[in-house]
């Protein structure tokens, strides 16, 4: 499926979603292209019964729509039947996304304290946690970072993000990360690069047995696994944390420290202030509360 202009992760998801729909149609003797609205509605109902989340179903609808458009067919997803089916599933199963817990600044420090800095794995994970938090990068952006994307300066490091969710044309974005104290992300990254002997290529890499650094980059799922492992190591529920926890943790912590909306968006690179405001509201939800002193 040709999906130029979309993030690589989105392209992979669309291809997988389209293939799944094709396999479902083939197993039941139905044509997948073009598909009728009745078939798509039945498919969505079957997927919902199988426990698929509403967000997943919406993405699969988008993949089916795109495949039909690329082949010159009227998308069956435009029909009221398909739309009504999706609305009904959302009402029945709920459409609110499950958010991962934010790894606030104190949580990140606790995570880092569980690491063995005498090992390369410990140094890598320290750099990953602190830079991931301080830069508020998405996990896919962290996984894609190369050593050459880092520009070290006196004040800290400029992180060059080559492509992101909000920069589909690949024009590039820059996130400034300032130096810190005992948990300085700039120092942690510099230490990891020097200890691992990495001069170019992927910044965060998989480890082989024996604490050996490989040439293979960490995937987004592997980054989430590091966060979960460190959360569990400091006594937290690993299921509550994931790759997004670092980004959410920075925004919530910065909002608690009264950083302006403009400055938050400067780091997060959100294009819609509404997306950032939910972190601001979370940070201040108990401040000047309307119910204060009532009971």
UniProtKB/TrEMBL annotation:
InterPro entries named among the record's database cross-references: CB (IPR044068), DNA_brk_join_enz (IPR011010), Integrase-like_cat_sf (IPR013762), Integrase_catalytic (IPR002104), Integrase_recombinase_N (IPR010998), Integrase_SAM-like_N (IPR004107), Phage_Integrase-like_Recomb (IPR052925)
Keywords, comma-separated and alphabetical: DNA integration, DNA recombination, DNA-binding
Keyword Cell membrane: no
Residue ranges of domain Core-binding (CB) in the record: 1-72
Domain of life: Bacteria
GO molecular function, a single term: DNA binding
Pfam families (alphabetical): Phage_int_SAM_1, Phage_integrase
Limits of the Tyr recombinase domain: 98-295
Keyword DNA-binding among UniProt keywords: yes
GO biological process: one example: DNA recombination
The protein, known as: Tyrosine-type recombinase/integrase
Annotated organism of origin: Thiohalocapsa marina
């Amino acid at each position: 499926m040709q999906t130029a202009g979309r993030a690589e992760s989105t392209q992979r998801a669309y291809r997988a979603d389209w293939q799944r729909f094709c396999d479902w149609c083939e197993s039941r003797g139905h044509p997948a292209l073009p598909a009728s609205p009745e078939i798509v509605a039945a498919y969505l109902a079957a997927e919902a019964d199988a426990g698929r989340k509403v967000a997943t179903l919406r993405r699969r609808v988008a993949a089916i729509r795109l495949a039909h458009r690329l082949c010159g067919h009227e998308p069956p997803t435009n029909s009221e039947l398909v739309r009504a089916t999706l609305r009904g599933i959302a009402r029945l199963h709920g459409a609110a996304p499950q958010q991962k817990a934010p790894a606030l600044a104190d949580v990140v420090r606790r995570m880092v304290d569980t690491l063995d800095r005498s090992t390369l794995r410990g140094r890598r994970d320290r750099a990953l946690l602190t830079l991931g938090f301080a830069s508020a990068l998405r996990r896919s952006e962290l996984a894609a970072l190369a050593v050459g994307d880092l520009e070290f300066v006196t004040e800290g490091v400029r992180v060059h993000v080559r492509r992101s969710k909000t920069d589909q044309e690949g024009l590039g974005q820059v996130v400034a990360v300032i130096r810190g104290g005992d948990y300085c992300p700039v120092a942690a990254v510099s230490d990891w690069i020097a200890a691992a002997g990495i001069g170019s290529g992927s910044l965060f890499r998989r480890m082989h047995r024996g604490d050996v650094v490989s040439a293979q980059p960490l995937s987004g799922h592997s980054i989430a696994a590091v966060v979960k492992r460190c959360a569990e190591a400091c006594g937290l529920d690993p299921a509550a944390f994931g790759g997004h926890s670092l980004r959410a943790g920075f925004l919530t912590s910065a909002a608690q420290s009264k950083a302006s909306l403009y400055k938050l968006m400067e780091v997060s690179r959100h294009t819609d202030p509404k997306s950032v405001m939910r972190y601001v509201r979370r940070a201040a939800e108990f401040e000047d509360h309307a119910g204060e002193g009532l009971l």
